[in-house]
Design brief:
This protein is α/β, with parallel strands linked by helices and 204 residues long. It folds into 2 domains: 7-17 and 91-199, 3-Layer(aba) Sandwich (Rossmann fold), CATH 3.40.50.1000; 20-88. The chain is 52% helix and 11% strand. The protein has 10 helices and 5 strands; from the N terminus they run E-H-H-H-H-H-E-H-E-H-H-E-H-E-H. The chain has helices at residues 20-32, 36-52, 57-67, 77-88, 93-103, 116-124, 137-140, 147-157, 171-179, 190-199; strands at residues 7-10, 107-112, 133-136, 164-168, 183-186. Strands 3-2-1-4-5 form a 5-stranded parallel β-sheet, sandwiched between helices. Helix 1 crosses helix 2 and helix 1 (20-32) crosses helix 4 (77-88).
């Protein structure tokens, strides 16, 4: 058992829910009848600003409305986006159960590069209910894998990296966390995650 661990930090997209960077281009393609390749290009250009909160999904939609004719009712585009996102961004209930168990004994933390409209949707469906602390790039302005994003979390928690497990599905994020002294786990499946946590003595 790793008795030094006090804090378990989870990425959201790709660990707890379907990665949003794969979903949003499909939604934009649907709303504006764009070829998927063009929707991916539009989203890729907007993504850095979306992640830091310097651009909202509403403003992105307004910009796309000026340059592309939406298929759906213009006044309802944001609501349609939310509805499509909720249908496609599925919550992994097995991982949610694991986090719920850990919440009772450890400090559980959400650490995510989530854009504003996705945050609203996930708050409404209580995605963050089993986290003691939540760090969202579109609110903090700090984006993984920047070291400053990890350092901000540690400072705010008053924690040492060696007392934290960081779980993410992206190797670039894992690499930075490991370089800062975090114990890390590159997420693959909920079954393997459960096995890792059991091996660490954090889950029975």
């Amino acid at each position: 058992m790793n008795t030094a661990i006090t804090t378990i930090i989870f990425d959201i997209g790709g660990v707890l829910i379907t990665p949003s960077e794969k979903i949003t281009p499909f939604i934009l393609s649907e709303l504006f009848s764009l070829p998927l390749e063009l929707a991916i290009q539009e989203y890729t250009i907007a993504l850095p600003k979306l992640r830091t909160g310097s651009l909202t999904v509403s403003l992105m939609i307004e910009d796309l409305k000026k340059r592309h004719v939406p298929v759906k009712n213009v006044s309802k585009l944001e609501q349609l986006y939310l509805e499509l996102y909720q249908k496609q961004a599925l919550i992994n209930e097995d991982v949610m159960k694991i986090i719920g168990i850990l919440y009772e004994k450890y400090t559980t933390v959400a650490f995510t590069n989530m854009i504003d409209l996705h945050v609203r949707c996930n708050e409404e469906r209580q995605l963050f209910r089993h986290f003691h602390h939540v760090y969202i790039s579109s609110i903090t302005g700090l984006v993984k894998p920047e070291k400053a994003a990890f350092e901000h979390v540690l400072h705010d928690l008053g924690a040492q990296a060696a007392s934290c497990i960081f779980i993410d599905d992206k190797k670039e994020n894992i690499d930075v966390a490991r370089s800062l002294g975090f114990i890390t786990y590159l997420y693959d499946t909920d079954f393997q995650l459960k096995g890792f946590l059991q091996k660490e003595g954090l889950l029975s």
